[in-house]
Amino acid sequence: MSDAIRAFFSRLRAIFLKSRLDDDFSEELAAHLDLLAAENEKTGITPQEARRLALLRLGGRERTRELHREERGLPFLEVLGQDVRYAARTLRRDYSFALFAILIVGLGVGASCTIFSVVNTLLIHSLPFRDPQRLVWVANHEDATGDMSAKTTQVDHFLDLREKNQSFADMAAYMAFYGIGDAKLIGDGEPERLTSVPVTQNFFSLLGIAPKMGRQFSADECKWKGPKAVILSDAIWRRRFAADPNIVGRTLPFDGGPVAVVGVLPASFDFGTIFAPGTRIDIFEPFPLSPETNKWGNTLSIVGRLKPGATVKSAQAEVTVLAKLDKQAHADRNDFDPMVYGLAEHVSGRLRPALFVLATAVGVVMLIVCANLSNLLLARGATRQKEIAIRAALGAGKRRLIRQMLTESLMLSCCGAVVGLVLALVGTRVLSHLSSVSIPLLGEVHIDASVMGFTLLIAVATGLIFGLVPALQVRDVKLYDTLKDSTRGSSQGRGHAWIRNALVISEIGLACVLLVGAGLLIRSFLRVLDVDMGFHPERAAAVRIDPSSSYKTQEQRNAYFTEALHRVLDVPGIEAAGLSDALPLGHNRSWGIAAKGVVYTPENYPNGFPRIISDGYFHAMGIPLKKGRDFSERDDKNTLAVIILNETCARNLWPGEDPIGKIVAEDVDRTVVGLVGDVHHMALEEGSGNEFYIPIRQIQDYGSVDLVVRTSMPTTELAGRLREALRPIEPDLPTQNLRTLQTLVDRAVSPRRFVVILLAGFAAFALVLASLGIYAVISYSVSQRTQEIGIRMALGASAEMLQKSILLQTLGLAGIGMTAGIAASWILARTLSGMLFGVTPGDPMTFAAMVVILAAVAGLAGYLPARRASRIEPMSALRTS
Amino acid sequence: MSPPLEMLKGTLDLMVLQTLAAMGALHGYGIARRIEQISGDAILLNQGTIYASLVRLQQRGLISSAWGSSDHNRRAKFYSITPRGSRRLAETAENWEQLSTVIARFFAPKEHRS
Fold first, then answer.
1. Which of B16, B33, B47 to mutate: most A Cβ within 10 Å?
2. What's the pLDDT at A710?
3. Is there a contact between A35 and B59 if contact means CB atoms under 8 Å apart?
4. ipTM for the complex?
């Protein structure tokens, strides 16, 4: 061990043994002096003289002690310790101030940390897979619309690409058109619908996920009509099967036959949070890559793992060429135009602007917190000038005093950071349990080491920023003047008033920016909610009632549908009921739809969104029938093939003509019998495009059947009634998935709502802080001017005049702040434009509302001190001096 | 009498070590006296500075201390050199001799210089 390290540790030890070592040394010194004095006495002088000479020879007792201590301990730490103790004492004396400061730092740090942990999880952290930076997402076409059919890939294209490419170590896929609740578990407890995602055999191994129990799918299981197998997610294994350690090898009774459990995935893998935010995925089944599934058209979402050395760009170049060759060789296949994205970018790229806005917002909030505390400390500093002057007079250096002040502000900010960390813990817990918000990876948000580091950084930075101005004020303390002035702390210099005003102005300006940002997003949000969705979600609910596997033929299933609808409509309180294979705002697909007799090129062959529905669906959904008729029970495979179009589709196929009676080429030629309103089925912000409806009794191409009912019954009661009504034909109806249509809408707007709520919260906090800032500055200046006000009143100034002048001073500050704020907002609002809907970045309503709110708050914050000032008793004000 | 010599940095520590090596265990006062005597009172210490030096040496593990009683039956703290201290002293003394030879050459009479 080197000397320096040895010395450091014994110095550190010495700090803790301080009093013992001091006593020890006192005794040693006493012995030294005794010996020295005894020696001196031998020369024949008096004992007193001998002692005096001994002390001289030693060089003074205290000085020696000090020298000893400095050598023994760590002077830097000891001074720090003194400063901290002193600061703690001062803050305890002024605990209301300390509490207030800690609280606002805490709120600010809490907000910053929560947002940082979201940003950390979504943008900084890599995905929870092996070597995630080499994972890519291969979409078909641009990855921007909500139309799933246009983004997914046909099986044969996938097989060819996987075989021929040089860029990928491997490629895997899942079937994107799995339905929520597609797999019905019967028996073994309550019947329940589970959501199952069909995946290719190598899907988990490509991601680097190994089952924690059991195995992956075998090649045999991944064949068409191979042995049925399922892999469970950790969550369903715990919830439904009580974490049964012997689950692997058991068969589960699904509707459609028993299925063997071959594995259970680890808890760290959550498919939903990454690939389908806001949904819960329970189980996985093998997806066969066979000629049969190839016929299903575009079905696959592809994930690839790049070889070492390959990049997204090089892979893109290669797959573009391969896809082109493929298309030429197989004209019969669907279009294929693969686009390669980094998987992380695909998952969280869309959220980047929103997170950027939130991160900026918390940054602004922190600045306001700093400005506010700076101001408070300045006001305190002014009243503490005498204390500072006394300490300076007793020999404290300027440096030491500044250090003392900074220690105080750092202590405040660190205490605040602890409070903030607790708030952030709560905040992240809340966020990670928002299961219905469709933001990817939200469930993974938590406080980790980097968040802690960030908190520490924020705490120190804030402490230094808000402590700096008040600390530097120490330099200007005039010893003599301050000590002489016996009545008040001191008179406030012009320089300080300037700083304080500037701080308040910047607070107002920053609050202004936040208010405008929040205002614009709130207005957008309201506009989105205001969108005429084309259907009426209120008082409507849906539940899966797919015909069970015992209904084998189309006739049997059609009879089941008719029977089911009759039984449901007989339930009192149900106004309308209908069936659909695809509810709005969920997964989407597209099929070609052409006007009979028109020749299209492959490029402009029209596409549309198909819905397979029953009679009564439009009524239950609240979709208006504009022309013609609704489907009826008689529209089955023995009668005329019919179709109903939405207005956009009719307009696109036959501009300016009456579509009723026209014929379209779909699966078969179908006659248009009705025209209905457009529905926003992909997202509220997107238009509807071509939509068409095919009667469920004329086609078998549905993967799921939802019963939609219109009723004012609460869902709990409704579930029971439906189960009751359908029992004779469907004894195992799982009703856990009964959901109101409003929840679908809520989920669709959830990311927007998420951002709006957070931003509005920040803006409100900023507003409160800014008003506190104004209040503090004005009431401080009033208290400083008590004497002046007293004189003015004695000379005949009226209370109204005084109030007016103080209010004007306040509004003056607010006015300057708002002007700066409006200018800044005007520029910054442009960066929001991508997130706005139905409002422009310069929306006059928002700006006007912001001006009114800020002016009102500023007026109120100035009015209180003004009223106090006008009640000053002139005599008592003059007498205090 | 000329003013006491200015002490070179680290010199005091070396003197203390050497004193302890030569005399065995000694208390602070004894060490100070001994150094003054050896220097022929050319070095007059503020005797307090000896304690800073003792702390330094002890922290580096070069000396150890224990309470005992002096010749006059006065309780006092006695310091003694550790094996580590002896090793260090040997090394440093060698350095010191080399350095003082070099210094001596610098200050030697002029005719030897060229």
1. B47
2. 93
3. no
4. 0.83
